[in-house]
Amino acid sequence: MNELPKPTKQIIEFYDYLEVSLYLENKHGYKEQDYAGMFSPENKTGDFSETLINTDIPYQNFWHFITNRTEIHNGCFLIMDNDWLNTEIYGHAKEEWQRTIIEYYLSEFGEGDNREINFYVSW
């Protein structure tokens, strides 16, 4: 029987998803969990005693898009790349607002020909 060499630790380079999302929100002036502003005080209808929800505006939540697209759990890795923009692949960005946010990520942090980004997700 051949003896196998002892395994060594591996190093994975990654971005913290939350840090990147907050950076991009701040830089581009949007909220990932309410992209269209359905819950924004500027868009509310009625007087202050009424709801802050404007039902004329669609609820656009990028985090929900991600969790519907791929399995996410605390302590996981997530890879985003150009394929996320392919509207022909199931679960990929079909709506313009989704593609806009993905493009923010890929333009700022993507590496290589496929603009791949490796994220660590934790909460």
| Residue share in helix | 25-40%
Number of helices: 3
Strand order of the largest sheet: 1-3-2
Give the oligomeric state of the chains in this entry, treating copies of one chain as homo and distinct chains as hetero. single chain
**What is the total number of structural domains?**
1
N- and C-termini, Cα separation: 45 Å
Output the structural class: alpha+beta
Tally of strands: 3
The biggest sheet amounts to: 3 strands, mixed
Q: Which runs of at least 5 residues are low in confidence (pLDDT < 50)?
A: none
From the spread of the alpha carbons, the general shape counts as: elongated
Which percent range describes the beta-strand content?
Answer: 5-15%
Mean pLDDT, all residues: 90
Give me the Rg, rounded.
Answer: 19 Å
Helix and strand pattern = EHHEHE
Tell me what you see in this structure.
The chain has helices at residues 17-28, 62-69, 96-109; strands at 15-16, 76-80, 117-121. It has one domain (15-121). It starts with 14 loop residues before the first strand and ends with a strand. It has a three-stranded mixed sheet with strand order 1-3-2. The longest helix is centred in the C-terminal third of the chain and has 14 residues, at 96-109. The model has no long low-confidence stretch (mean pLDDT 90). It is an alpha+beta fold and 123 residues long. It is elongated and about 75 Å long.
